[in-house]
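so my prof wants the structure for this chain in the tokens format not the other one, which i didnt know existed until like an hour ago. anyway here's the sequence
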Amino acid sequence: MHSQTVNTSSQRFLSRLVCALLLSATAAIGPLALAADPAEHPVLKRKVSLPPSADLHYNIEAKQSGLQVTGESTVKWSNANGKYSVNAETRAMLVGKILEATSEGDIDAFGLAPARFVEKRFRREASTTTFNRETHAINFTQSTETYPLKGGEQDRTSIIWQLISVARGAPDKFTNGSEWQFFVAGPRDAEQWSFKVVGREKIKTKQGEVNAVHIFRAPPPDDKSQKLDIWLAPSSDWYPVRLRFTDPDGDFIEQTLDNVSKK
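here's what i got, hopefully its the right format
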């Protein structure tokens, strides 16, 4: 009986741990709500400067339903020969790899131009979001939704790197209170995201204290999904040194940079 109780507790713990870490690699903010008229999303062309290729390693700490959760995430960012790719993996203690997300495509006048976004979650079939440049449409394997492809659209993995590229292209414009909008596609649909520059803060990492630009992305007022905070380090090519996902009930997932290796 005691052994059976322990096994049940372990299974519950692992289940919660998996749920807690599923979002960390892709910066997902919960289910996307469709825009009132997604066909009208604006086309915004900005100056961009892509960061150098690098491998980044993050430690993950979280609190979910009273449980302390740990894990790690790796991000492989490549920028070469007019093309880019991002591969992010999240691993949880005792479970192993629970999520892999890949974004790849070209580099054009808007910055990153995704061609394909693939997300593979723990014990689920992979989902694919396609940015079809010939038909000028965004399509999904997980839904029948379609959106017009006008230029500048991102997916949930590329968006962080497009944000970095825009910040590097116009660092003097990333001032407190400035807002930056992007049209972002997930596994099933897409909507416009708005990021706001909060200010500059010092972040402690294993590599020392880093001065970072704090950027905040909140869900719409009537949406009780996760909030996302991102800290970018101008002194380190604007790589993200920390990401924090906060639930309405105070639970959180925090991802802090442990090591970066430039290629």
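also thought this was worth mentioning. The helical segments are 2-21, 158-169.
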